[in-house]
Amino acid sequence: MNENAIRQSLAVKTDGLTKRYGSGITAVDSLDLSVRRGEVYGFLGPNGAGKTTTLRMLLGLIRPTSGTAEVLGESPGSEAGLSKVGSLVESPAFYPYLSGRDNLKVMARYSGAPRVRIDEALSQVELSGRARDKYKKYSLGMKQRLGVAAALLKDPDLLILDEPTNGLDPRGMADMRGLIRELGRGERTVLLSSHLLGEVEQICNRVGVIQKGKLVAEGTVAELRGRQGLAIRAEPVEEALEIAKRLAGVEEVRASDGILHLVTDPERAAEINAKLVSAGLRVSEMRPAGQSLEEVFLELTGGEAV
Ligand SMILES: Nc1ncnc2c1ncn2[C@@H]1O[C@H](COP(=O)(O)OP(=O)(O)OP(=O)(O)O)[C@@H](O)[C@H]1O
């Protein structure tokens, strides 16, 4: 693909995107992000990593200090770009005494979205049955779904959601995850931020991991977890560690709680077992062990938990 074709296949592309706040904080630091059209992309990072700041720049709500961003081939905040982007970045200010439907009516009038979209959007977020109830009667999950409905009014090609499950109870979170998966089917691109690994793992095709404003990894969940290996219980463990380090085809070895963790092809279990046993070690357990995304994440972000 030439450069132009690559650009067209991307829903979001940033080059060296940087935001510094007055107080000397670099919230986003030379970020190169690429979100492909049609995918559900998870923007994952601990609190304060710079996710919201990035999304606000993509929406043209704040200006980058340096670097550039393209959203559906347009510059952020331009009229052409905004007409194809729906977002839930700050909780929209809904009127508590109006129904969900009337709130959307007000918003549709304000944003110029066609009226027919109101019922479609309500149905998409499964609020049709409660559309005539007052907003203040809604549960938190329903309020959040109405926010998504508002973002869907323009039937956007790109949906940007900032921590869409934040504050919801487990049921509300599961509903929201199901909804996002549904919305991401087909042509629409969804970019969502989250500090929850499990969530991103369940919904997203690809993930970008951000820490202290920098992108530390980007790839599919499978790619990020791709480091397969073996967990081995062998004694004495220090000796086993030394021998394992010298084995060909073993990329990495570490020991924790008396178990050796080898990054290697799990198919090599029998061969590695034979080598350890012939060196006089007692091997009592050997099993394939992929790294969990959590381990990968902790490694990538230098141990900063989420
Ligand atoms: N308006 C602002 N002025 C000064 N500093 C800010 C401002 N907004 C954000 N920051 C700082 O920038 C950094 C990144 O914040 P940001 O909200 O983008 O992170 P985040 O990953 O979205 O985190 P969270 O999930 O907690 O919202 C933080 O250190 C934050 O304190």
From TrEMBL:
Pfam families: ABC_tran. This is ABC transporter ATP-binding protein. Keywords: ATP-binding, Nucleotide-binding, Transport. SMART domains: AAA. CDD domains: ABC_BcrA_bacitracin_resist. Residues 12-237 form the ABC transporter domain. InterPro entries: AAA+_ATPase, ABC_transporter-like_ATP-bd, ABC_transporter-like_CS, P-loop_NTPase. Belongs to the ABC transporter superfamily. PROSITE patterns: ABC_TRANSPORTER_1, ABC_TRANSPORTER_2. It comes from the Bacteria. It comes from Rubrobacter xylanophilus. Gene3D superfamilies: P-loop containing nucleotide triphosphate hydrolases (3.40.50.300). One of its GO terms (molecular function) is ATP hydrolysis activity. PANTHER family: ABC TRANSPORTER, ATP-BINDING PROTEIN. The keyword ATP-binding applies.
